[in-house]
UniProtKB/TrEMBL annotation:
It is a multi-pass membrane protein. Residues 145-373 form the ABC transmembrane type-2 domain. It comes from Thioalbus denitrificans. PROSITE patterns: ABC_TM2 (PS51012). Pfam families: ABC2_membrane_3. Belongs to the ABC-2 integral membrane protein family. This is ABC-2 type transport system permease protein. GO terms for cellular component: plasma membrane. The keyword Membrane applies. The chain crosses the membrane at residues 31-49, 179-203, 232-251, 257-281, 293-312, 347-367. It is found in: Cell membrane.
Length: 375
């Protein structure tokens, strides 16, 4: 079909914005996806994904049964990381606690524990750790070593080290995993939401047969593209604000940088995401195919290759190269930098440039594809 070529009309554009807005209001699925899905995903992932280990079950096999060994054992629950769940009578019982999963680790204290301490000699204790969960095992070992070092320091009365290492962690002094997971999670969720929202819009017109009616009008491809994107863009801005509010007030993540910059970069990010959804929607003939393609094309790369959860520097070289084409990678960097470091825009020029380039390329291809479908 041929479309009559006229100049860009603000009247036609606004009419299409109104039509799309009315459609969203009347479609419960679109409303749920636009307003409930970000909240649901943020709550689910925000609480489910955590690298912190705060409650480790400890089995104890104390062969010494002395005041010193009891003091040493009491130091574990006092650290707030351990709960003593089993006071084993035998070594086999301590082992069984770990094997059965009743305890994450078992502490075995030898019979000469207090005697060696009285003689100012080193007393070796054994810690059995369940290594089936490597992350938890590593953290449990670190915690146990910390408790032991603290107990030894108290016993000596003073620290006698030639070099004292005074560690200071910036931006996240308590190393709370939620502080770096939640900002990145906002980027992952918004990547999926923006692409999903617009991936259905054009496919829906083709499925319902209303696209032919739109083509019969003098509307231009650019007017149609912008008219369909605008309501979802405004919804996306609301979703970003909602996600930031939840990050600050629900998950206690500090927002140290500029909210205005965060929203501005978020708007740039959403243009690319919405354009990608339109591009998918233009290529797909059905809403089901469009939504499936949008989910696969956005969620997996954003989740695995954006640096949100896994360090890009630790990935194989070829995957590191691929991550440069993942839009969420740059928004994750911006979110973490603004939330935790209060980084100014001057330090994030590369990320902003890529988001701009991604939006221009995707919108340009979507518009070109749109024209071909309408002509």
């Amino acid at each position: 079909m041929n479309v009559t070529r006229t100049r860009f009309s603000g009247r036609r554009y606004l009419a299409l914005v109104r039509k799309e807005s009315l459609h969203i209001r009347r479609d419960p699925r679109s409303l749920a996806m636009a307003f409930l899905m970000p909240v649901l995903l943020l709550v689910l992932f925000g609480y489910a994904i955590t690298l912190d280990v705060n409650n480790l079950d400890l089995a104890v096999y104390d062969q010494d049964r002395s005041a010193a060994s009891r003091d040493y054992i009491r130091a574990f629950p006092a650290s707030n990381y351990f709960t003593v769940v089993t006071d084993a009578a035998t070594y086999a019982e301590a082992e069984a606690a770990v094997v059965s999963g009743r305890a994450h680790l078992a502490l075995v204290i030898p019979t000469d524990f207090s005697e060696r301490l009285d003689q100012r000699r080193t007393a070796a204790v054994q810690v059995l750790v369940d290594g089936s969960d490597a992350n938890t095992a590593t953290i449990a070992i670190d915690y146990a070593e910390g408790v032991t070092e603290g107990f030894s320091a108290d016993l000596r009365g003073q620290v006698e080290l030639a070099v004292e290492n005074r560690l200071r962690v910036w931006y996240n002094p308590e190393l709370k995993s939620r502080w770096f997971i939640i900002p990145g999670l906002i980027a992952v969720i918004m990547t999926v939401i923006t692409a999903l929202l617009t991936s259905l819009t054009v496919a829906r017109e083709w499925e319902s047969g209303t696209m032919e009616q739109l083509i019969a009008t003098p509307i231009q491809p650019l007017e149609l593209l912008l008219g369909k994107m605008t309501p979802y863009f405004l919804i996306g801005v609301f979703d970003v604000l909602l996600s930031i509010a939840m990050a600050v007030w629900v998950f206690d993540v500090p927002l140290r940088g500029s909210l205005a910059f965060l929203l501005g970069s978020g708007a740039l990010f959403m243009l690319g995401g919405l354009g990608l959804g339109i591009l998918i929607s233009t290529a797909a003939r059905s809403q089901l195919v469009a939504s499936q393609v949008a989910m696969v094309a956005t969620f997996i790369p954003a989740f695995l290759l954006s640096g949100f959860l896994y360090s890009i520097d630790n990935m194989p070289r070829f995957l590191q190269v691929i991550t440069h084409a993942v839009q969420a990678r740059y928004y994750v960097t911006i979110l973490k930098a603004v939330f935790l470091k209060a980084s100014p825009p001057a330090l994030l020029v590369n990320e902003l440039a890529f988001l701009s380039l991604f939006a221009l390329v995707v919108l340009g291809v979507a518009l070109r594809k749109f024209k071909k479908r309408l002509d």
